[in-house]
Amino acid sequence: MASDKVKTFTDSNFDDETRTGVVLVDFWAEWCGPCRRLAPTVDALASEFDGRATVAKLNVDDNPDVPGRFAVRGIPTLLLFKGGQLAETIVGLRAKEDIARMIERHLGN
Amino acid sequence: MSDRKVVIIGSGPAGLTAALYSARANLKPLLIEGLEAGGQLMLTTMVENWPGFRDGIMGPDLMTEMRAQAERFGTEMVQGNVSKVDLRHRPFTLTFDNGKSVTTEALITATGASARWLEIGSDRRLSGHGVSTCATCDGYFFRGKPIAVVGGGDSAMEEAIYLTRFASKVTVVHRRDTLRASKIMQDKAFANPKIEFAWDSEVADVLDEGRGEVTGIVVRNLKTGELRNIALDGLFIAIGHTPNTRLFAGQIELDPNGYIVTHSGSKTSVPGVFAAGDVQDHVYRQAITAAGSGCMAALDAERYVEGLADEHVPRAQAAS
Hints:
heterodimer; A: 5-stranded mixed β-sheet; B: alpha/beta; FAD/NAD(P)-binding domain; 5-stranded parallel β-sheet; elongated
């Protein structure tokens, strides 16, 4: 279902994958209704920012370490990393345009 | 000319039922899903009081089915979020987040209600870091940890009982010394060894904003004024809902609590605007009543649109 532009992150590849550039990570789980609703938005963002920013999903069921490190205790949560540093946090659902504007802001400088 | 005959805002049981009926009446409705697409049932697990499913159905699955059914008969769904409406001029104009807009002869508002937060600020700021309004979404993060639930109604008891699957202990913080919840839910909660009660109490603060995660709450006893800290990892807020009507303020009549006032079925104070579901109902608030009122709104809107067509025919003929 997920677009092939969306990467899959795990506890083991997370640090390598977020080290450079602008990276948006969607923390989700199978049993989370709102996460299912956010999924098409994340897919669309992956296509929109293809080649400019990385968009990825991390399943919190299979990967408990990364959510623990960033005190993620609710999903869906979107974290935006820039050059390996956490730059933005969005908890819950948000309009695609808002998220796109946030990514643009970090690509801009 | 308007772009549409019928536009529906909201995609819970009310909006999707309105869409199903409007689509079957050949009105080619546009349904705007909104941010919390699928509505409150997306945040539930097993729904056992939806007629026709003797063993129950999962809330998100029910919504997926309803959506597919509305789509099958020709409802056009868009994912956007409406940020502005003009109901003073006809046809009505709805403007989306992205600046695009659509005009319509009839509007069905089924924007529902969203979970209320405490009015202390720190709860919002720690949302996603230990404070939650959705037990089914976030309970998982509190395996073996102590947590609290705020509220004394059925949903608060349901959340507290559900959360005992994960949490080591659940403290229910309630403003009074008796619960508002139904007898059956009270009995279940009282019988659960993991649930404790903090009566006559409110949450005065959530700790620890400095660390960016929940480490405890400050509870105020409303009878004695005494403050005490409870160390815990999670706080779930279940103190009811607020209708999503900010979009319509000043244009449609609202009651003092912000709900849309309806009369003669689903009619609002603006002819051509109909309301269905929790946005106009603070009494029943069930999936089935929302769906029923969505059907009413669709039938009322259909009649309204037909009435407009009848008005227009003679005038058009006179002009030719």
